[in-house]
Amino acid sequence: MIYEFQREALQKMMVKIEEFESGSIDLGTLVSQLRVAYEMAEFHDQSIRFVFERAWIFLDHEHELQTENWAPPDASTAQSVESAITGMRSWIECGLNDSGLA
Questions:
Q1: Tens-binned pLDDT, residue by residue, of the chain (102 aa)
Q2: How far apart are CA 1 and CA 101, in angstroms?
Q3: 81-89 contacts at long range (C-beta below 8 A, 24 or more positions apart)
Q4: How far is CA 12 from the centre of its chain?
């Protein structure tokens, strides 16, 4: 069951993805704002938390590959970022469509 405040947090997440795709925010901002919205939603079910973390970690990893000194040049590609975005978007859409997040 998704509560209204959780649905609102999911909608905010989707808006942030759209802002990233339009170039309004960068990947680091997207990663941090998705985390904040998720924490505000207060999902307590461990299976929901696990699936979010699994989707989010790929975005965080792509951001690290773009910004950390240890990362090889060009380690993050547009295709790998898009794949990570697709995973997060799928998780959000499941919640918005009441088809479950876990």
A1: 788 999 999 999 999 999 999 999 999 999 999 999 999 999 888 888 888 999 999 999 999 999 999 999 889 999 999 999 999 999 999 888 876 665
A2: 9
A3: 81/27, 83/58, 84/55, 84/58, 84/59, 85/17, 85/20, 85/21, 85/59, 87/54, 87/55, 87/58, 88/13, 88/17, 88/34, 88/55, 88/56, 88/58, 88/59, 89/14, 89/17
A4: 11
Distance from C-alpha of 88 to C-alpha of 102, rounded to nearest angstrom: 13
Residue 68 sits at the vertex; the CA angle it makes with 82 and 32, to the nearest 5 degrees, is 55
Phi, psi of 36, deg, nearest 5 = -60, -45
The DSSP secondary structure of 43-72, one letter per residue, reads ---HHHHHHHHHHHHHHHHHHHHHH-TTSP
Q: pTM above the 0.70 mark?
A: yes
